[in-house]
Design goal:
By secondary structure, this protein is α/β, with parallel strands linked by helices. It has 20 helices and 23 strands.
Length: 594
């Protein structure tokens, strides 16, 4: 059975195809449109998935979408009837946006089926059921507790339950207008990070502050028994006057959702261009602390309800890797699976798997061990591009490209690494990555000044051989999707300063030899040269979505100051790269001295 799964008319529009329950293609629209978190209808992503699998439209047996306007309809109607007078045009527009899902049949006929009649049935799957399905059905667990947690989707912010085999049982939910995700977004915006999806920046900033505003935040949000998450709505606008949003096409703009009362409580919000202060760092730390208290409160209540040792997580809040790294010490759960595309892009997969297993009751055949489900370009395709552009390059063998790249990294150079299929989800995991030497404390500043041009407080991640991770990090777990922060062992922090965060942690990516043999070979070769089987890994981009095509990679390479590019087995040298960092950050110095 071939199923086309879609996330549309929301941020991180995406598409995927499952074949007999096995994910065979997946892609976010942003990678093809080159617009971060691209919203609207994922026309290009759908076409890419069809091209990649070789399927025709006639061979698609079902189409699924991760929104259902009929879900929680009674609650929506009651809320609107009680608040009709104070609901703004923005709120009414948001409710109207849900109705676009009902017109997806026409959109598919117009853009994908080229005005031919669409005969295949479309299944609408409620947003959080799609999140839950996206993390349970591809997990290694036969039975597990499940938590989906984000801002909002289909009038719900949080849903929890238990999965067994091909079934899921919902045990409860938190309905609009209460949401821990909205709380995190509001404070993120207050701190001057206004772009859609900027919450991860504040998570990184939190390591530099002290949680001195927790008492103030306890006035804003609480969580009691029975999963009772409650916002003090006087500090927010999303439920009344509303927030301005664009979910139609292009960038998913979202205006601030906090009220004047928050400013009265905390003082003036930070301007996006203002230098960060101790107050900003302390607010970020207080936000992360408060989030974790509620997060672990929910998880501990979920364990009591389900008595399952295994846990599956999805939703935008499940990408909070700092909190995820503490699950084992703060809850009784023994094993955790975080779906790597845990944000809304992953609901495309969830809606397809929900339809496959719950609606059609087909057996599970798929375990998600990697994220490499995007486009792939063979050597002939890449060479055609290089010939057309008349570029100078060397063509090397598999072993030689690994050896050349490992030596360049050991020499302190920056290497663009473009290999195989593109990753699905927000993390670059060794196929669309920028790589560097983690032993050099100055490397963080070099990357930021030459290529990434991002805030200095944001950490870079280490990719480590799975079998060597226990020598450097704790707890000893595999972390193939970079979804959990781990502690860097105290005696190892001087060895890898540029991937050790200010608080002595790292967002670790463990690399399995079978899953990604070429990337494993590169890290292994670097380890033989240096004694450190770890490479600094960050996404291959420059203030844009992660590169997708060879043309994207060459464009980023040509306008940046990285030293080398490994495009498949084609090796490029950038002759313009001569650089001495102008400064080493305070964080780098402390990390090196820890």
């Amino acid at each position: 059975m071939n199923i086309l799964g879609i996330n549309a008319y929301h941020g991180d529009a995406a598409a995927c195809i499952t074949q007999d329950g096995v994910l065979t293609a997946a892609c976010e629209e942003e990678r093809l449109r080159r617009i971060k978190h691209c919203a609207g209808f994922p026309r290009l992503a759908i076409q890419m998935c069809l091209n990649q699998t070789g399927l025709t439209l006639d061979e698609i047996d079902a189409i699924t979408i991760s929104r259902n306007p009929k879900a929680n309809l009674i609650q929506k109607m009651v809320y609107v009837s009680k608040n009709a007078r104070k609901l703004s045009a923005q709120i009414k527009n948001r409710l109207a946006n849900a109705l676009k899902i009902t017109s997806i049949h026409d959109e598919l006929e117009r853009t994908i089926f080229q005005n031919q009649s669409l005969k295949v049935k479309i299944y609408q799957v409620e947003h959080h059921l799609a999140h839950m399905a996206s993390c349970f059905f591809p997990s290694p667990f036969e039975e597990a507790a499940i938590l989906s947690i984000d801002g909002f989707g289909d009038f719900v912010s949080t849903k929890w339950g238990v999965g067994k085999g091909t079934s899921m049982k919902v045990l409860g939910q938190v309905k609009f207008p209460h949401s821990i995700g909205i709380f995190y977004t509001a404070i993120t915006q207050y701190l001057g990070f206004l772009n859609y999806g900027d919450e991860y920046k504040v998570m990184g900033l939190a390591a530099y502050g002290k949680p001195s505003y927790v008492s103030q935040f306890q006035e804003i949000i609480t969580c009691g028994a029975n999963f009772n998450v409650q916002l003090n709505l006087s500090y927010f606008t999303h439920h009344s006057t509303g927030v301005e949003m664009n979910w139609e096409e292009g960038y998913p703009y979202q205006s601030p959702c906090y009220s004047q009362k928050l400013i009265e409580l905390l003082g003036s919000p930070r301007h996006p261009e203002s230098p960060l202060t101790d107050r900003d760092r302390d607010l970020a730390a207080s936000l992360q602390h408060t989030f974790e208290e509620i997060y672990f409160g929910l998880l501990n209540q979920l364990y009591v309800k389900t008595k399952k040792k295994d846990l599956c997580l999805a939703g935008g809040c499940a990408l909070n890797s700092a909190a995820n790294g503490k699950i084992f010490e703060r809850t009784p759960f023994k094993n955790v699976f975080v779906q790597p595309a845990a944000g809304d892009a992953g609901t495309a997969l969830g809606s397809a798997l929900y339809t496959e297993h719950v609606l059609f009751k087909n057996p599970r055949r798929f375990q998600m061990r990697h994220t490499y489900f995007g486009p792939e370009f063979n050597m002939a395709q890449i060479k055609k591009t290089l010939t057309q552009e008349k570029l100078h390059y060397e063509e090397l063998g598999d072993e030689e490209i690994v050896t050349r790249a490992a030596q360049a990294l050991a020499d302190g150079k920056i290497v663009g690494w473009f290999q195989g299929q593109m990753e699905f989800g927000p993390r670059a995991l060794g196929n669309r990555s920028l790589l560097a030497d983690p032993r050099r404390a100055e490397m963080k500043a070099i990357l930021n000044e030459r290529i990434k041009h991002r805030e200095e407080f944001r950490p870079f991640a280490p990719s480590v051989l799975e079998e060597e991770a226990h020598h450097f990090f704790e707890p000893t777990i595999t972390n193939p999707f970079m979804t959990q922060v781990m502690k860097v062992k105290l005696e190892k922090r001087k060895a890898i300063p540029s991937v050790t965060h200010f608080d002595g942690t790292a967002r670790v990516h463990t690399v399995n030899r079978e899953v990604n043999p070429k990337y494993w070979a590169l890290i292994h070769a670097f380890g033989k040269l240096t004694g450190v089987p770890i490479i600094l890994n960050t996404s291959f981009n420059e203030n844009e979505p992660i590169v997708c095509t060879p043309e994207n990679a060459l464009n980023c390479f040509s306008r940046s100051r990285m030293d080398y590019l490994a495009l498949g087995n084609f090796w490029f040298e950038n002759p313009s790269t001569t650089f001495t960092p102008s400064s080493v950050t305070h964080a780098d110095i402390l990390a090196a001295q820890s």
